[in-house]
Specification:
heterodimer; A: 247 residues; alpha/beta; Rossmann fold; 10 helices; B: 91 residues; alpha+beta; Ubiquitin-like (UB roll); two-stranded antiparallel sheet; 3 helices; 7 strands; globular; binds zinc ion
Chain lengths: 247, 91
Amino acid sequence: MTLTDYDLKRYHRQILIRGFDETGQLRLKQATVFIAGAGGLGTPVATYLAVAGIGHLVIADMDVVDLSNLNRQILHWDENVDQYKVKSAECKLSAMNPSIRITPLQVKIDEHNVYALTKGADLIIDAMDNYPTRYLLNKAAIAHNIPFIHASVWGLEGRITTIIPGKTPCLECIVPEAPPREVFPVLGATPGVIGTLQVTEAIKILTGIGRPLINRMLIYDGEYMEFHEIAIEPDPKCPTCSQKALN
Amino acid sequence: MSIKVILFANYREIVGSKEVEINSPLSTVQEVVNELTGKFPALIPFLYHEGELKRYVNILVNGVTIKDTGGLITPVSDGNEIKVFPPVSGG
Ligand SMILES: [Zn+2]
C-alpha cells in the first residue's frame, strides 16, 4: 500500500505535524479501527478518524436513531430518526471521505461475538454507554493484545484513558464494578471534547507520535472548565488482566 | 482546621455544589467522609454498598489516590484537598 497524490494533498496539513510524516499517514491508511458505538462518543470519533484517513473503520451499534439522540450524536439528523445508526453514520462518513473503507455492523456486542468482531483491528475505541459491554471489549483487547481507548461522559464531565494490554491497568483494574445504569444528562459538546481526545490518542498510538495517556485517567470538568488527572495502577488481583487470570 | 472536599458527577448533583468546606478537627479520610455523609445522607447509597466503600469510588488526597496510602484510614491534615470521583457511564 502506498500514498497516492490524492492522499498527499488531502492529508498535507497533518503530514506537516512533527514526527508524523508520510510514514505516519501510511500507517493510518493501513489501519483498521474498531469503534464500539455510533452514539455520543462514536459519532465525533468516527468523524475525525474518517477525515484523518484511517483506511478501515468498523463501526458497531445495535440501535436505531431516536429524536432524543440528536443533541449530541452529530452524524445522525432528523431525517435519520428510526434508521439504524450504523447506516446513518456510514452514509455521512462515506460522503465525508470517499477514499476510506467503512464497515457498518448492526449488531449487539456480546460475550460470544466480541472476540470475532474485534479480531484484526489495530485499535478498539470505547464509545459505549454501559460498563457490561465495556468489560467485554476490555477482555477482547487483552485477548488480542490491542490498545483500547476508554472514555465515558456525564453532563459536562468526561473521563478518558488509554489502555495498553500488559503495559497499563485494564478497565476492570480501574472500575472493578459497574456503576448502575441510568438515563444520564449530557451536553452534546461533552462527548465532542472527549471523543476528539480519543481520536488524538488513537492517531498518536497508530503513528507513534507523542506520549499516550497511559497509567493516568484524565477527568474533564466542563462545568468549571478544569482538567484533573488520577494516577491509575494495575490491580495485582484483577480477575481479567492479572498474571493469575491470564495463566 | 479546614479541609476542602471536591465532588464530581452525581455526587455534585446530590450536594448541589462542587465544593464542601469542612472545618471540624478530623484525622482520617473516613472521618471526612462521615462528616460529609452526615451533612448529606443522600450520598450514602452512592458511596457505600453494605457498609463498604464502593470499589469504584476514587478518592484523592492532595492528588494522591488513597489506594496507595491505606484507604479510608489515610490521614488528613489542615488545608488538604480531597477529591471524590464516581465513574460515569455515558457514551
Ligand atoms: Zn485489570
